[in-house]
Amino acid sequence: MKSLLDVVNEIDNFPYHGSKSYDQYVGRLWEFHLANDSRAHGYIPDFVVQAMPWNSDFRIDDSSDPRRVTLLKSSLTDANQAIADLLLSARGDKIFKCLNGWRNEEYRILGAKLDLKIERAGAGLFGITTTGVHMTVYTRSPDGEILLWVPKRSMTTKKNPGKLDSSVAGGVPAGVEPFECLVKEAAEEASLSPELTRLRAKATGCVMEYHVEDAGEGLLEPSVKFVYDMEIDRETVLQPADAEVEEFRLMTATEVQENIVAGNYKPMCVMVLIDFLIRHGILTIENEKDYSELVARTHRFLPFPLRPE
Amino acid sequence: MKSLLDVVNEIDNFPYHGSKSYDQYVGRLWEFHLANDSRAHGYIPDFVVQAMPWNSDFRIDDSSDPRRVTLLKSSLTDANQAIADLLLSARGDKIFKCLNGWRNEEYRILGAKLDLKIERAGAGLFGITTTGVHMTVYTRSPDGEILLWVPKRSMTTKKNPGKLDSSVAGGVPAGVEPFECLVKEAAEEASLSPELTRLRAKATGCVMEYHVEDAGEGLLEPSVKFVYDMEIDRETVLQPADAEVEEFRLMTATEVQENIVAGNYKPMCVMVLIDFLIRHGILTIENEKDYSELVARTHRFLPFPLRPE
Predict the structure, then answer these.
(1) In sequence order, what are the residues at sequence separation of 6 or more whose Cβ sits closer than 8 angstroms to the Cβ of residue B9?
(2) pLDDT digits (tens, 9 = 90+) for A74-93
(3) Domain A4-13+129-297: CATH architecture, name and number where available
(4) Where are the domains of chain A?
(5) B-contacting residues of A 180-219, CB under 8 Å?
(6) For the complex shown, is ipTM > 0.90?
(7) B68-71 and B58-61 as β-strands: parallel, antiparallel, unpaired?
(8) Inter-chain contact A208–B296, Cβ cutoff 8 Å?
(9) Which of A66, A195, A209, B181 is deepest in the core (most CB within 10 A)?
(10) Are B228 and B201 in contact (CB under 8 A)?
(11) For residue B255, what are the contacts with CB-CB under 8 A and spacing of at least 6?
């Protein structure tokens, strides 16, 4: 049977500095840079750089080490327009499958000096750090045992059909505060009233991971997920409010853990659940051999700026 | 005024890979190795390698890159004896100030294949990862506000006199389970009964940091601190049980934060308190600009094994 760390290794699969594959792996990537900013904001795999219909708004420099792609526009309006134009052009040419999932919603480029935005479906093409919110809603059995509210995704939803998920989760669009995003998602996904979420949801930190799609060969997806807990009474019942979720069920922590190692969870929420199990004293140094490593891996120091200098 | 991140930068001051000083800094260090184990277990600064009275139990190899010190003894008894003999000899010669604080208590070398031990006062000379337990004991005001029990160390104690500290804290000696160590320390330091600690203390994760003494020029001290919370009623009062603590006071989270940035806390417990303030929703992404970085920095991925292969 897999361990939790085995599952984490599949999700947080960008190599760590000091591992055997690190130098070779990173050496094959391109850095994504913004005008007037010495810091990289993402890594782009070579197949994306080769396929993208770059125009003169970008400089493609394969003589630098590491190789880099630089957005040359330095004003807010021009830079945002350049990104949008490029992605629309790539979408029109049907070059990247990910752009089929166009959202008309944008992520902010975390750490950029300007308020720069990228269409969500295209964020992975630039390898920027994305932002999400995840909330675990739980109650307690009469003898005090924690029971988690777990949604099962609909079999007809496009991404991760039939998989288990965080009680509430979503990407944070540019210009929206994470907590406000959470309040909205809780109502839309789990029929939780804004009043209840505002009263009971508690910020408990964030989970950071560095995922690479297609077992390390695909798009690079570093992420920060702001994490919230909400304990509710046993009378409050979570209900699907849109077609994405089929049903909500109450599960013990043991059932959650079994479903994680069985691969029944959507990968994107696994780190959030492991963090929950650790913070609530369900996993301990005495019962989980990889305890300290799981704590470090769920809170990865990402190599890109999280806020402007 | 300092930010929390400024304080964290002083404590977690081993450079990160990718920072300007990393390669040069690490290039000046020696790796500490054990027999039949390809993984390094610590970094040793050059001044220690030059001053230590090495004997034939150790190989000093300055032609390898990085340079390394290897303990050659491969049996459990011989290896432990070799470490003990070396440190006793260095202590006799009064070479290192840290050995004046000889404890007659040992740390386990985390991640070693054998059950190897190093006298606590000498752990920093090999740069191994040390293990501790920290508990924050808190109660709530009538309106629900968190109040933390904060000890002030005695002015006559040798280390960090007069500084504020974790409610309960201590190093975990080799052969002792972290939770059992916590139960003992809670009784010895804060007069908390073993029954109460066993009932109410809750494991919530661990804090990992990489400190280098003397602002980066001294001994290397990576550490794992297992973290516990204990909420108690307002009638239970913490009392000093030994001469190390002068008094316990109840403080609001704001007072704790002010004392951290004012430098009134013992540096070793600052990360534990920041982790507490984040887990309890007192610091949030909306009120703390360095939120995500503080989460990553308090849970550092250390470059040494935390458990045997």
Answers:
(1) none
(2) 999 999 999 999 999 999 99
(3) Alpha-Beta Complex (3.90)
(4) 4-13+129-297, 22-126
(5) 202-206, 208
(6) yes
(7) antiparallel
(8) yes
(9) A209
(10) yes
(11) none
